[in-house]
Specification:
This protein has 312 residues and is of the alpha/beta class. It has 10 helices and 12 strands. It has 2 domains: 128 residues, Response regulator (Rossmann fold), CATH 3.40.50.2300; 132 residues, Rossmann fold (3-Layer(aba) Sandwich). The longest helix has 16 residues.
């Protein structure tokens, strides 16, 4: 009996101890650093003019598309206020500043201050007559004047008395638009410029100056305003005087109110400068600069004459 027990015992399977595998530690998740967001400043001369509102909108749209932030400061056509606002942008340590100067000479000091702070500068519409600017975006203002003059000569059949409402005295845009226009009409014997007065690119001044022009000129065939705001002011004065049927009004900028005036027959033509596109390209250039790239020093935006036949 004991022998059987021994045999049975020897036949039993051996118990094998199984060691549990040590837990595998998963590597800690690596936190990605957030992508740098560039912050740019836009020092604009005024937002009272729809042209510059369109410019602001174009800049903001492009900044959003490129993942950038933009700070817009309105100087309200005040040179000292613009200088103060640029100081504010410098103190905020923005990455780049786009400037639409109130005055090309006065802005030079501020541009030099921006340079000294090591911040890149781009200008739009009006240049800076001093300091280092990486890129200036503009239109050929002389060509804008030529486009208006050519259209006016055609509409008047080469004969008529013309008044001009000039932009801000000394502004490069005003001087160029005047020159481009005069270069054409001075060569047309039947066109006589009977008045050329400053209305500072403002609608109210355009209306006031136009009232004086109408009183002094009982015979007047056309008005060329250096921008649409003055042209629209002129339209108001002409309508009040009951002379819209006899006076043709031309402007520059193609703002919405001017396009509506053309549609109603209150204006004949304007020149589209594409401010929305212009500022969008300025923001694109800003991104290129901040990414370490290079940009063209001068970019000219194409112009287009707008009349009743090609209203957008």
């Amino acid at each position: 009996m004991s022998l059987v027990c021994i045999a049975l015992t020897s036949c039993a399977p051996e118990q094998v101890e199984v060691e549990e595998a040590a837990p595998v530690e998963e590597p800690a998740a690596v936190e990605e650093e957030p992508e740098e967001v560039y912050v740019i400043g836009f020092a604009v001369s005024t937002l009272a003019n729809p042209f510059f509102v369109s410019m602001k909108d174009g800049g903001e749209a492009m900044a959003a598309e490129l993942g950038m932030e933009i700070i817009t400061l309105d100087a309200q056509d005040d040179i000292e206020k613009q200088a103060s606002q640029i100081e504010d942008l410098i103190s905020r340590e923005v990455d780049l500043i786009i400037v639409n100067p109130c005055d090309s000479d006065a802005i030079a000091t501020s541009v030099i201050d921006i340079n000294n702070a090591g911040i890149p500068v781009i200008t739009v519409t009006r240049p800076s007559n001093g300091g280092e600017v990486l890129q200036h975006l503009d239109v050929d203002n002389s060509f804008a004047g030529k486009l208006v003059a050519d259209e006016m000569v055609k509409v008047l059949d080469g004969v008529g008395k013309v008044a001009i409402l000039e932009g801000i005295a000394g502004a490069p845009s005003a001087e160029a638009r005047q020159k481009g226009f005069m270069d054409v009409v001075e060569g047309v014997e039947g066109i006589e410029v009977v008045a050329s007065l400053t209305a500072n690119y403002a609608r109210e001044e355009g209306a006031s100056v136009m009232e004086d022009v109408l009183q002094a000129n009982p015979e007047l065939d056309a008005v060329y305003a250096h921008n649409d705001e003055m042209a629209l002011g002129a339209v108001r004065a002409i309508i009040a005087a009951g002379r819209l049927d006899e006076i043709k009004v031309f402007g520059v900028d193609a703002v919405d109110d001017a396009l509506a005036a053309i549609a109603k027959g209150e204006m004949v033509a304007t020149v589209m400068q594409q401010p929305y596109l212009q500022m969008g390209k300025a923001v694109e250039a800003a991104k290129a600069v901040l990414d370490g790239g290079t940009v063209e020093t001068l970019v000219i935006i194409p112009l287009l004459l707008i009349n009743a036949e090609n209203l957008p």
